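Hey everyone, long-time lurker, first post.

I ran two proteins through the pipeline my lab uses and got sequence/structure pairs for each. Pasting them in order. The first:
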Amino acid sequence: MPFALTKTFKIDIGHRIWNEDMRSGRGSELYQPESNLPVNKCAALHGHSLGVTFKFQSKKLDEHGFVLDSNLLKAPLSQLIAKLDHAMVIDRNDPLFGPITQLCDQFALKYYPVNFCPSFEALAKFFFDECQKIIDQCRHGEEFSLLGVTIRGAKMSVEATYERP
């Protein structure tokens, strides 16, 4: 596709990666016990400032010279971002889901339950799927498409992207 448009939102979230064990799975042969790396430092509750970038594409520009006027996406995507901003994103399958959500309820802390372990990669797919639902409601949704979503950690050298299969 010759034309592309990106729109980035800033968001702050909390999460924990409860199911990681660097001693097993993909890349486990690279784990070196003598490095003093914890087996799963991301199991602790922690947070990130993130950039969530949506990338759209189109074969041709519309009558106004746009892939899509990004202001049209601002409201629905901002509503989506607001649901997770400054929330603890917690996997319903996490063994600590009950205790964490009880504490959140007890102290009026915001949380957002999901059905996946909220790694950057999984969050990119989540935002992709949710944005696609918004596009599917557009009258001209077939004239442009969502190419991918990238999650970037602020002040981190890591980013994760989910692209249209």
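...and the second, right after it:
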Amino acid sequence: MDVARRERDISQRVIPILENVVGKCLSPSGDNFKAEAGGGGSAAAMTLGRALDAAGRLDEAAAAYRRAVDGDPRAAVAANNLGSVLERIGRLEEAVGAFRRAVRLDPASPVFEYNLGVVLARQGNRVEASACFTRAEERFRAAGNTSMADAIAERLKSLDGPSEESAEP
């Protein structure tokens, strides 16, 4: 059995458990995490989002990540994951907002900056995408990840060219 299939199978088994945990962390109206959850609701929603994402249930994953972000406004990783799912289901404007939030919450993360650049490039916003890629490249290089920095440098070159398409690093 390949790894992706095994991950999907495991996700399918844990999703009902995680949905139950997240449900217990919601207020009676079902729209807000209970204060007494102490952030546990946000963590549970994040875990549920990952399981739903792995199972290919992207709309549900987006909803879970959104709950994680709403439950912990400092949840940069949840905002990034939300942006990733929204991008994959074609909701690019919302993805940009989620990635901007992740960058705002953790401005030192080259990954969040890079992801924002990818979606901006898909929207045809070459100038802002180029700025994001430049910052991401600098941060990856400063962290010693030269292979990612070099891949982003190549992507930057393609943004300057005539093509709208660019390769994934």
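Reply from user beta_strand_b:
Welcome! Quick read of the second one: Confidence is low (pLDDT under 50) at residues 26-38, 163-169. The first helix runs from residue 3 to 24.
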